[in-house]
Design goal:
Layout lengths: L1 H70 L6 E5 L5 E5 L2 H47 L6 H7 L4 H44 L6 H19 L3 H5 L4 H20 L25 H15 L2 H11 L1
Antiparallel strand pairs: 1-2
């Protein structure tokens, strides 16, 4: 009986322990389940954040690519730039180097021409200064014109010697003057030749010799008739830039003359039928002109203006 009680107590105690272990296992399992759920939620949250970050980054990349696409020109092979006067120039990538080289070549030639002209002017000024100094010094030494007939009568012994010295001095002065003129002619010829070569650079259309020979005398005629220059003034013009300026002025004058020409047309006048006993009213020229000017202002037609212009004539 005692043994039976002890066994029952023992079984009861073991059952109690089993129930505690079961509860402990259930609690542990519950905690592990909760922890797993928590980790799963956190993992999903992190994955969601990563996905959102990736989406934002992708959107930024798309925006940047869109901006780059929008900033690119319609034709990637065309370079567009604006000059100081507002003119827009469009060149292909093949044309750009050639355009740059042509502009650089023109700029270099223009600068070289300016330097050469300054050098020429400096040399010419220096030469003239030296020649004038020598001529001035020689002129101071030479006595005024002498009446050699009287001098021979006064001093027949010394007069021949003085006369010879005088002639030598005059000869030396003339030689200096000839040397001065020769140098000037040489430098002028060189300068004129350089300017002729430069003409075809600043007036490219004059590479056509026929056009150049046609417009060259027209410029001279324009300068004489319209500007009032003398032929000697025109002959002294050697600077290629002045020639181009005169050419542009002549062409502009032609355009203006053609634009302001008014074709004179005769306006037919309808005859009035006079009633018996009535007399035609006389209209003064001033009234006729005033009426035609008013008509031209109202009608704004070529015929109306031509009629008014004809009345003025």
């Amino acid at each position: 009986m005692a043994m039976s009680n002890e066994e029952s107590v023992t079984e009861a105690f073991e059952g109690l322990l089993d129930s505690e272990n079961i509860e402990s296992d259930e609690v542990l399992a519950s905690e592990q389940s909760e922890q797993a759920e928590t980790e799963e939620v956190e993992a999903e949250a992190e994955a969601s954040e990563v996905d959102e970050a990736d989406e934002v980054e992708a959107e930024e990349v798309v925006e940047e690519e869109t901006e780059e696409v929008e900033s690119e020109p319609d034709d990637p092979g065309v370079v567009e730039f604006t000059l100081n006067d507002g003119q827009v120039i469009r060149l292909t990538q093949e044309e750009l180097p050639n355009s740059f080289l042509m502009q650089r070549d023109y700029t270099q030639k223009t600068q070289a021409h300016a330097v050469e002209k300054q050098k020429f002017d400096a040399e010419k000024a220096q030469f003239y200064e030296e020649m004038n100094r020598q001529i001035q010094a020689l002129s101071e030494v030479i006595e005024p014109e002498i009446n050699w007939a009287e001098r021979y009568e006064e001093d027949p012994y010394n007069a021949p010697k003085e006369h010879l010295e005088y002639q030598e001095k005059q000869k030396k002065k003339a030689e200096l003057q000839r040397s001065n003129q020769q140098y000037f002619d040489q430098q002028t010829a060189r300068y004129v030749n350089e300017q002729r070569q430069m003409l075809t650079q600043i007036i490219p259309e004059w590479n056509d010799q026929k056009l150049a020979q046609e417009e060259n005398p027209q410029i001279a005629q324009f300068l004489v008739e319209e500007i009032g220059l003398q032929p000697s003034d025109i002959a002294a013009v050697h600077d290629a830039r002045l020639v181009k300026l005169a050419l542009l002025a002549m062409r502009q004058h032609k355009l203006q003359s053609q634009a302001t020409k008014v074709v004179q047309k005769k306006v037919s006048k309808a005859k009035k039928v006079l009633r018996p006993g009535s007399a035609a009213k006389k209209v003064s020229p001033r009234q006729s002109l005033s009426r035609k000017i008013q008509e031209a202002g109202q009608l704004q037609t070529t015929d109306a203006f031509a009629a008014a212009f004809e009345e003025i004539l």
